[in-house]
């Protein structure tokens, strides 16, 4: 069982990687004043901040406007953005590979419908549920086999699949088996939606690659999360924190726990990180 808040002294960190929904953001999608202040204080103290989210590339401008000018790892690791919103690197799913994946999952799970996140666009099949997206985000509607090859030149950042009747755990397991290593498979909403990224692309792979390029090792990173798509990131770093409201698998995997997203759990730990750096003899 992971320690509860206050059980252990916070380790010194150089980089904080935080999930957004259910983690940094409150349940109403806002950033609390305490969290905003804690992020600024951490940066002032020399601790880097990177937002690591399952949200798609098209959401990045809004996130930067709402949260602040931080680096963003979007679409479960499919893209990295600079604080000004410039794309630094992407790891898309090639159209031919996506088409093969769709065929595999459709054969294994009859009744599935698909949606696709491109670099700045969104498309879905007619049966894909409208409650999972805002109507004004849709660019194309049609059969998956057609959507994957249009618009030309727009790589697929993430594939989403929905099933009307299967429980999420059953649907995810069958979809993962159908993917058979041809894609990374995860889920993050608690609803019957399964998400696919290119093989080997996770929040962890992109975070550690990007941080390594800055000379920051895994043991110098603290990561915060609440859902299964955060698990690779949480198990890849030296200091992992599960929110009190986290999925049971996340609570079991993380080394530490903090308060819930609605109780400023990330902010509480950031304040402790900053305080630790101010102690005499603290590592610079």
TrEMBL record:
Keywords: Hydrolase. Transmembrane segments: none annotated. The keyword Transmembrane does not apply. GO terms for molecular function: magnesium ion binding; phosphatase activity. This is Hydrolase. The keyword Magnesium does not apply. GO terms for cellular component: cytosol. Pfam families: Hydrolase_3. Coiled coil: none annotated.
